[in-house]
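Lecture 7 notes: from sequence to structure.
We start with the chain below.
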Amino acid sequence: MTEAIGTGGSDAAPEHRYTAELAGQIEKRWQDYWHDHGTYNAPNPVGPLSLDDTAGASIPSDKLFVQDMFPYPSGSGLHVGHPLGYIGTDVYARYHRMIGRNVLHTLGYDAFGLPAEQYAVQTGTHPRLTTEANILNMRRQLRQLGLGHDERRSVETTDPEYYKWTQWIFLQIFNSYFDEKADKARPIAELEKEYAQDKRSTPDGRSWSALTPVEQREVIDSHRLVYISDAPVNWAPGLGTVVANEEVTADGRSDRGNFPVFRKNLSQWMMRITAYADRLVDDLELLDWPEKVKAMQRNWIGRSNGARVTFIAGEAGIEVFTTRPDTLFGATYMVLAPEHALVEKLTPEAWPEGTKDSWTGGAKTPAEAIAAYRAAAARKSDLDRQENKEKTGVFTGSFAVNPVNGTEIPIFVADYVLMGYGTGAIMAVPAQDQRDYDFATKFELDIVRTVDPGEGFEGEAFTGDGPAINSANDSISLDGLAIGEAKKTIIAWLEEHGHGEGTVQYKLRDWLFARQRYWGEPFPIVYDEDGLPIALPESQLPVELPDVDDYRPRTFDPDDADSMPSPPLSRATDWVDVTLDLGDGPKKYRRDTNVMPQWAGSCWYQLRYLDPTNTEVFVAPENEAYWVGPRPGEHGVDDPGGTDLYVGGVEHAVLHLLYARFWHKVLFDLGHVSSKEPYRKLFNQGYIQAYAYRDARGIHVPADEVVEKDGKFFHGDEVVTQEYGKMGKSLKNAVTPDEMADAYGADAFRFYEMSMGPLDVSRPWATKDVIGSQRFLQRLWRLVVDENTGDLRVSTVDATEADRKQLHKTIAGVREDYAEMRFNTAGAKLIELNNYVTKTYGAGEGTPRELAEALVLMLAPLAPHVAEELWKRLGHVDSLVHGPFPVVDEKYLVADTVEYPIQVNGKVRSRITVPADATSDAVQAAALADEKVAALVGDGTPRKVIVVPGRLINIVL
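Predicted C-alpha cells for the same chain:
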C-alpha cells in the first residue's frame, strides 16, 4: 500500500541535518572503513586466522560465538522480514564486542538445492552462475545494513573446498558403526577385527573365514551408520525424485511443484539416526533451548515403552509393538500397513469360507483386493492416513493366533497403520482404542473390553485408567490389576513363554539421504563389479560435480507410480564410469548418480566457521575447543559445549536441528570434536507480517500500488480486499531493505526493526512508522552537531546530579536489555534519555560531553554507522566497535524518595512519597496522615498497619 516514504530533507532544510542522503554517505564510508581495517575479524588460537604465530598467546579468553541460521540465497533478494534475526544477532554481538569479548559472528550460504536447479532447467543457466549471482546480491544487501560480520569466515556449501569436508564427514559416518554396549559410534575397522577374530557371531552362525569376501562385505555394510536400504520412500514422478516425509504436504503432494507423491520401495542411502534416539532425547536437558522446540523434538523422536509381541499366522510370525500389552486379551483383529513385507505371503488365492462381504472390498480374490487397496493408499500422505476419520481396509484372507488365548483373529490391510512407526503391524484392541473401535464397528469385528470403565460408561472406546477385566488364561490373570502392574505382569509372561519381550519403540525413522537431482553434493562412493559400495580415499576428495547439458531429472507422468528414478548425473557417462586405483591396481568402477540432500551442508557449518581456510582438517582441535568446547565453569558441570547463541526460525525446530545434532554426536564419538552438542543456546525470532491485497479474481496485486480512499482500497480504479499475512513474494507485499535504506538510512531501518517489539514475537510492518526512528536519530544528531554549521555543539560543563541519575539509570537498563536481547526496550530507554537531554540542553549552548558520549556509545549496537560518525566528531581516533561501553555508577541508582501505594482493606486508596531512608514508623505515620486515608479511618483506630519496606502499606480497618 502506498505510504509516505522518507524525509530526505527539503530545500529549506539546514545544510547539516541528518537526512537519508547524509545517512547514506556516512553508512557507505563506515562500511568501507570496517572492511578495510578488518574491524570485525575475530582471531583464532591457531592457523591462518590467528593474530600471530604464537599459538594464541594473545587471544582473549572471554569469547562469544553468535550464529544465524544458514540463509538460502534467493534470486528475488531480501525483503525487510529476512534481516530481522540478522540485525538482532548483530546488535547482540556488537554489545558484547564493546564490553571486551572476542566475538565471532559471520554468515555463510546454504546454496545447494532445488530452486537453483529448477531455474537452470527453465533457462539453461548453470546453477552455479545463478547461485553466485544471488549470493553477490545478498552480500550487497546485508553489507548495506552494516552487519558486523567477519567476512573471512563466510562459507558457501557449493564451494568444492567446503563440500570436500561435507563428503569427508559422510565418510566418517559411513566408516562407523554404532556400538550399543558403549552407546557410541566406533570405527568400522574395529568391527571387522571382531568378526575376523570370531569374537562376534555372523548372521547365519558360520565362522568369518567360511564367508566369501562378498558375504563378509555385505555383513559389514549392514552395520554401517550409512547404509543402502530397499525401503519405502516418497516418489514424486512429476519431480523425478524422491522427497523426505517432511517435503510431502498433508494431501499427499510434493511441497515443490504440488505433484502427487507415492510410497514406493527403492534402493536408497539411509543414515542410522535411530541409533542415537535416546541420546537425542536425553541430551535436550543439557540445552538452553525454548521448551516448545524441545517438545517438538521429543514428539518427533516419539520414544515410548511397551512390548514386542509375536502373533503366528500359518508359518509366518507377525511382530507388533504395543504400548499397552495389558490389553492383549482384547486384541480381536490385526492390521498390516499396505507396504508390509508379509502382505503377499498372507494373501491366499481365494477367500476363506464365511468371509463377510464388507471385508473384501468387492473384489473376487484377496490378491485383487490387496492390489487395488495398495494403489489407493500409495496416493495418500502419512498425515492424511493418520488423520482421516473414514476408516478403510481389506481382509488379507488370513488369520493369526492371539498368543494369550489361542483365538484366531482376522488380518486386515489398512492405511491407518504406517510402516514408519513400530513394525508396520498392530494388534487391534477396539475396546481401548478409538481408531480400532471405528474400524471394528465398520467391519463388524468383535469388541472385547479389557479395562473396566466403571458404571454408566456406554459405547465407543474407553481410553482411561481402570482395573483389568476379561484378561485371564490357565497360567496368568491380570483381572483387577491397575494398568502399570498389569503391563509388568504380562510382559514377564510373554518373555517366559517366548511370545515377546519388553522394549522401547520410537517414531523416529532412519534418515533418507539421497536425492535424484543435480545441484547437490556428489557421494564420495563408487561401486565395484559386485555392485557393493566402496568409500573413496580422502586424497580423492572433493568429488566435484561434473557439468551436464541437461539439469533435469527424468520426469514422468505425475500419476505414473510405477516409474523409476533417472538422475541427471546418469547422463554424465564419462564421469559415472571411471577407472581408479584404490590401492589394488586400476579397476573399473561406477559412481553414485544421486546427490546428498540440501540438509547435508547445514549439518556442520558452524564448525567450518571456526576454521574456514584450513586445508588439513575440517577444524583444528584448538580452534574447536576455544570457540565451542565445553565450559563447565561458566555453564555448569553438564555443559555440552556448542555455539553460544544460535538464532533462527522455529520452522527448523525439528529437521535441521535434529540432523545437525546427529552428525555432531557422531563426530564427538569419533573424537573429532570436544563438544557433545552443536548449539548450546537457541533463540527463535519472530516474523514480519504485512497487509496484502486481492482483486475480484482473487489474485494478489502489488501492495505498493494500492491506495486507500474513503475507507476502501484501490488498485488503479478497482476496489481490492485487504488481508494480512507473512511478508513475501507470493503475496506481493514485500518491501526491500534497499528501499528503506534509500528513504531513511540503514540505521533508521535497523532501529525501527528492533523497536517494533520483542525479537521472538511476530510483528506487523508499517513503512510510515520508520520515520519515527529517523526522527529520533535526527534529534540525537542535533545534540552533538549543529545542523546549520556542522560544528560540534558539546560543552565542557559537568553534568548535574539529576543528569547523572537519569544517565546511569539508562546505562543499567540498556546493559541488561542488550544482554537479555530485549532490544526494543533498550531503544525505548535511549529515546527516553535522548528526550531528557534534548529538553534540558537542546536549546542551550551545548550538551555536556559526559551525556553526549554515553548516548552515542549506547546507541552503537542499534545504529552503528551514525554512532561511529558522532564518536569521531567527538574527537576520538579509534572506532568504537571494541568499546568502551558505559559502566554504571551504582551511587546514582539510589533513589532519594520512594512512592508507597496505600491499601485499605485490600484496595489501593492512595499513594504517598517519603524519603528513601524513612523508618517504618515514619512511613506509617505519613500514611495515616494522608487526607484520603484519614477520611477512611475516621475517629477509629486501624486494626493493623503493615509496612512492606520500599513496596507498599496495608491498613486493615
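Points to note: The CA atoms of residues 393 and 414 lie 4 Å apart. Residues 706-752+767-891 form a domain with the Isoleucyl-tRNA Synthetase; Domain 1 fold (CATH 1.10.730.10).
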